[in-house]
Design brief:
Blueprint (H helix, E strand, L loop, with lengths): L5 H151 L1
């Protein structure tokens, strides 16, 4: 095997060192600079992205605070509107209750007045009926007396 022969070993070592050295120099001069450039760009873009994320998070928290403040204001306005509407409804309810009570009093007074009038009319009507009945009874008694007087005269005559 020629690779393991001692006479060719020095030339193989020479070419190995030249190849490896040139490869190493090429890597040191070009590849590592490119890799460093890429890492630096990556770190810069990463830091920019992180800064943007922080800025966006701050904006989101500001927006959330604004939303919570607006929500509180809206809830306050809604509660005020509800209180206002309930007070208006209470006022209307009180007004309607007073109207109902006043109409009830007026109606009960009219009923009492009409009942009194009808009672008086019934009393007058019943007195008239009693007077008419008395007159009829008296007339009947008078007629009976006249008839009995006539009968008595006939008997005595």
């Amino acid at each position: 095997m020629p690779q393991l022969e001692f006479s060719t070993y020095i030339s193989q070592l020479f070419w190995f060192l030249i190849s490896f050295g040139s490869f190493l120099i090429f890597n040191i001069l070009y590849t590592t600079k490119k890799i460093n450039f890429l890492f630096n760009n990556r770190n810069v873009s990463k830091s920019l992205s992180l800064n943007e994320i922080l800025i966006l998070e701050k904006q989101i928290s500001n927006i959330e605070n604004e939303i919570s403040q607006i929500k509180k204001e809206v809830e306050l306005k809604i509660s005020l509107i509800i209180k206002n509407k309930t007070s208006i409804l209470d006022e209307k309810r009180a007004y309607l209750d007073s109207e109902i009570i006043s109409h009830y009093k007026i109606a009960s007074e009219r009923i009492k007045f009409n009942a009194k009038q009808y009672k008086d009319s019934i009393q007058v009507f019943s007195k008239d009926i009693i007077n008419i009945v008395q007159d009829k009874v008296n007339l009947y008694i008078n007629i009976n007396n006249v008839i009995s007087d006539i009968n008595d005269e006939k008997r005595f005559s």
